[in-house]
Each structure stands twice: as structure tokens, then as C-alpha cells.
């Protein structure tokens, strides 16, 4: 088996003070599947956690969600990254 057309795709939530962000999905291009992924936080990160980070349904991308456990007055966002590839044998 081989991988071809390896692509990095990102998606992000809005940057604001909302308590919950997501789910946000970085979707793979057509005819490819996710081979890895993850999520990160930008802005204030104290009291905020990524509570879900996993392949999207059908291996079509990567999905993540984050939540603030303490009220924040500083904007923050979640950035989701999917590494996608086509393949064959």
C-alpha cells in the first residue's frame, strides 16, 4: 500500500469569548482520507481544554471541540488540523 497526494488541511472557530467552540471539522479533499490530525488553542488558554479530538465520521477529516471551564474575557479559538492522503495498493 502507498500514500499519495498528502495534504494538510486546517479549520478554525471564530475568535471570541464563547464558552464552547466546536465541533470544528477540517475536511479532507475528495478521494482522500484522514491519516492523522489534532487540535490546538490560540489566544487565552488558561482554564480552557480540548475535550474532543478524533477522526471525523467516515475518515473524512478531523473533528475537535474545546470548552472554557472558567469564564474568560479574552478571545480564544480552536484550530483543527487534518493530514489527508489518497492511497492504493
Features:
89 residues, 66% strand, 3-stranded antiparallel β-sheet, 0% helix, mainly beta, elongated
What does this molecule look like?
This protein has one domain. The chain is elongated. The chain is mainly β. Strands 1-6-3 form a three-stranded antiparallel β-sheet, with no helix packed on it. A three-stranded antiparallel β-sheet has the order 2-5-4, with no helix packed on it. It has strands at 2-12, 20-27, 33-43, 48-55, 61-68, 76-88. It has no helices and six strands. The mean pLDDT is 93.
Helices, strands, pairings?
Elements: E1 2-12, E2 20-27, E3 33-43, E4 48-55, E5 61-68, E6 76-88
Antiparallel strand pairs: 1-6, 2-5, 3-6, 4-5
- Strand arrangement within the widest β-sheet reads 1-6-3
Helix share of residues? Answer: under 10%
- Give the DSSP E fraction (strand runs of 2 or more residues): over 45%
Largest sheet: 3 strands, antiparallel
Instruction: Decide which structural class fits the backbone.
Output: mainly beta
Number of helices: 0
How many distinct folded domains? 1
Distance between the termini: 4 Å
Total count of strands: 6
Amino acid at each position: 500500500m502507498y500514500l499519495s497526494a498528502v495534504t494538510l488541511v486546517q479549520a478554525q472557530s471564530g475568535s471570541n469569548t464563547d464558552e464552547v467552540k466546536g465541533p470544528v471539522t477540517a475536511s479532507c479533499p475528495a478521494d482522500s482520507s484522514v491519516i492523522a490530525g489534532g487540535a490546538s488553542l490560540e489566544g487565552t488558554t488558561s482554564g480552557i481544554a480540548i475535550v474532543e479530538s478524533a477522526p471525523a465520521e467516515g475518515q473524512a477529516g478531523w473533528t475537535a471541540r474545546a470548552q472554557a471551564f472558567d469564564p474568560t474575557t479574552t478571545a480564544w479559538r480552536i484550530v483543527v488540523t487534518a493530514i489527508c492522503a489518497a492511497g492504493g495498493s
